[in-house]
Design a protein that fits this description.
It is a single chain. The protein is mainly alpha-helical. It has one domain (about 5-225). The protein contains nine helices and no strands. The protein has helices at about 20-35, 45-50, 60-70, 85-95, 100-110, 115-130, 140-155, 160-175, 180-185. Helix 5 packs across helix 7. The protein is globular. The two termini are about 20 Å apart.
């Protein structure tokens, strides 16, 4: 059954299923960015997260925190829950340490992680090793490519052009349905910044608000990563 028929319902949002919901949410956000498809209203899920988050642990806790932060960026501030500020801060703390869930949010909010680059690389390597396992989180290919390109840019910016080029080559070989990757690897110029958003139609960031706060990072820092905030399109499709 397509995610839009169940992703907004609390019934299946139980221990062990939180990553499934986060994966489906990321799929909808990717479609929103690529084709401006609307995202499903997940306010019921967010209400349940507010209730059960203190009892969650591990991947369920991280996935729930990521869902809560990400969905609420599609909700007008005056329509958010009365508990939003408190729960949001808790979610930020949950995602402050390196994790694939946090890395996805770093990507979407165009913020470079403050973790050591080795930790970012370890998270990405672990993701690709486990993404096809039953317990693994599967991220849309657009965001897989984006995470690889963002890490490549971090290496390039630090002067390690060999690692940057190796990551571009890896993306071109292992992420098969994102067209420009092979060209990016072939045309790599160590003097030119690698911007993952060139993978979007007309290099647009449609669907993601400019001021998305990132997990563990204050909203005022949004855009401090590879893509400056002023380059981000501020239009966003509202939830169904």
């Amino acid at each position: 059954m397509a995610p839009q028929y169940w992703i907004g319902q609390q019934t299946g949002f139980v221990k062990g299923a939180c990553r499934k919901y986060f994966s489906a949410q990321l799929g909808q956000v990717a479609s929103c960015m690529l084709t401006k498809q609307p995202v499903t209203d997940m306010r019921e899920i967010c209400a349940k997260i507010e209730e059960i988050l203190p009892r969650l642990r591990g991947e369920d806790e991280r996935a729930s925190a990521a869902i809560y932060i990400l969905f609420n960026q599609f909700v007008q501030p005056d329509e958010r829950s009365a508990q939003f500020a408190e729960v949001y801060e808790r979610c930020c703390k949950i995602l402050s340490d390196p994790s694939i869930e946090a890395l996805c949010l770093h990507l979407l909010f165009s913020i470079t992680p403050t973790w050591p680059i080795a930790s970012q690389r370890e998270m990405l390597d672990t993701y690709f090793e486990t993404r096809n396992q039953k317990s693994g989180l599967r991220v849309p290919e657009l965001f897989e490519a984006g995470m690889v390109l963002s890490l490549a840019e971090r290496y390039r910016g630090g002067g390690d052009t060999l690692q940057a080029k190796a990551l571009l080559d890896f993306a071109a070989v292992n992420i098969l349905h994102v067209g420009p990757l092979a060209m990016l690897a072939t045309d790599f110029d160590p003097e030119v910044a690698i911007n993952w958003r060139v993978l979007l139609p007309q290099a647009s960031s449609a669907g993601v608000p400019e001021d998305m706060p990132e997990a563990g990072v204050k909203a005022s820092q949004a855009g401090s990563g590879p893509l400056p905030a002023e380059e981000v399109d501020n239009e966003v499709d509202q939830s169904n």
